[in-house]
Specification:
eight-stranded mixed β-sheet; four-stranded mixed β-sheet; globular
């Protein structure tokens, strides 16, 4: 299966803190880490570790981080031939606070990510033609996401869109999306409906009426909800020791792209992505937390074994 991920790459500056600071508060005794991240890069790494042939289209800046990121992508087996070099801006940077509870807050300086404009991506139309699925997020310019989605849709390619951070989506773009993957906050923003905890069906219906064919709403520890014209599926979450939720959504997206490229969207595909995300939250960092295909298989086997003993 061939997956093309088009999106952001960042250097993550992470501070592990006892609790997320309130406005004006300084939290001391933080533990600092510098890691590789960016939603596009995270999803590319997830798809590669979980068995796909991945081509990553991104833009890297005029600093030492560009070579570091590119070498790491190559180490993951990701095809890097179509990475754009931006000589005018630094590589994207994310400033992340992670509390001991696993919750986080993030500020992103996009840098070179915002130079990934439509003309740059359109030079790589052949790669899109050869893909089984296109995966995108919202940390690159909206017009790029839209142009690629429209092109992919015209050529019969499946598009997974993870509009994070949340942004308004016009109907033309939404009509080109096969898999809309959002968390409850993003779903609420895009549908313009407040999430009350028991109105997922109404929100998903509104998103479908906006043009999305399949709506997948991730719910953290509560699992995942999926709705399309044929069915509604709810998958329960897993009880794990969450230490960092930073890359949970990205891991889910990468895993779902892999599963859907192989078998289409069904309960098994959602379960596979749900397990991968559950493993990711038990580890610190974005890309370091993403599991391999073997780890996902082992996790599922252990849970199934535990359930059989409990029965």
């Amino acid at each position: 299966m061939k997956i093309v991920v088009i999106g952001s790459s960042n250097i993550d500056m992470v501070a592990q803190v006892s609790h997320l600071p309130a406005p004006g508060e300084t939290v001391g005794d933080a533990c600092f880490m510098q890691l590789l991240g960016g939603k596009g890069a995270n999803q590319a790494v997830a798809a590669a570790r979980l068995g796909a042939s991945v081509t990553f289209i991104t833009s890297l800046g005029n600093d030492m981080y560009a070579d570091i990121l590119k070498k790491q992508f190559e180490k993951e087996g990701i095809i890097t031939d179509y990475i754009v070099d931006d000589e005018c801006h630094p590589t994207g940077t994310a400033l992340i606070f992670v509390a001991d509870s696993g919750e986080n807050c993030i500020a992103v300086a996009p840098g070179a990510n915002y130079s990934l404009l439509p003309d740059a991506v359109m030079r790589f139309e052949k790669v899109i033609d050869e893909a089984d699925m296109i995966v995108m997020q919202a940390e690159i310019p909206y017009e790029t996401v839209k142009k690629v989605a429209l092109l992919a849709n015209e050529r019969g390619k499946k598009v997974l869109l993870n509009p994070a951070p949340a942004c308004p989506i016009d109907r033309e773009l939404m009509n080109s999306v096969d898999l809309l993957v959002v968390n409850e906050v993003e779903a609420s923003f895009i549908s313009d409906m407040s999430y009350t905890g028991d109105n997922l069906d109404e929100i998903a219906t509104a998103l479908m009426e906006s043009g999305a064919r399949n709506v997948i709403i991730t719910l953290g520890s509560c699992g995942v909800y999926m709705k399309n014209k044929k069915e509604t599926v709810r998958i329960s979450g897993y009880k794990v020791n969450a230490v960092d939720t930073t890359a949970a959504g990205d891991t889910f997206c990468g895993a779902l792209a892999v599963a859907c490229s192989q078998r289409g969207l069904d309960r098994e595909a959602l379960e596979f992505a749900n397990v991968a995300a559950a493993i990711a939250v038990t580890r610190m960092g974005a890309q370091p937390s993403i599991p391999t295909l073997e780890e996902v298989g082992r996790f599922r086997l252990e849970r199934e074994t535990s359930l059989s003993f409990n029965l």
